[in-house]
Amino acid sequence: MSGAEAFAVLLLRCVIGATMAVHGLNHWRGGGRIAGTAGWFESLGLRNGRLQAWMSVVTEIGAGVLLAAGFLTPLACAAVISVMLVAGLLAHRANGFFVMKDGYEYVLVLGVGCLALAVIGAGPWSLDAAFDIEVTGWAGGGVALGVGAVATAGLLATFWRPKRPEKA
Question: Which residues of 137-149 are buried (b: 16+ CB within 10 A; e: fewer)?
Fold first, then answer.
């Protein structure tokens, strides 16, 4: 990997990682805090909103830090992919594509960006490289997408109970 490519991967890792970590911090300490986040999750049909809020906070902050550090990158990417899948499916899908209409555009970009990072790898300026634990290529992408999809399916199967439309 050239120096420019290594820098590009570092930049992408740090921006997506910092975005996820700050997003998690906002769910915890900003706006409505845990109670507000829990209420919002419950309004999306997720049971145990408080547990979901804390799981989201821990996942977003943890994955963001791991991604920025380039440590266990396919698993960090899997966590981001899962969070983005849940957000896209429950909160944004019904609103269409465009983010200005609260659509799934933004979560799609973050999720696919992480899938691309899992395939490319964290690069030479990462903890994965320092500890010689890089998993890249189809294997890295497969881990990220597979674990992310299984985690999403497990969460939805366990906690999602959408409201049924009332009969007229």
Answer: eeebbebbbebbe
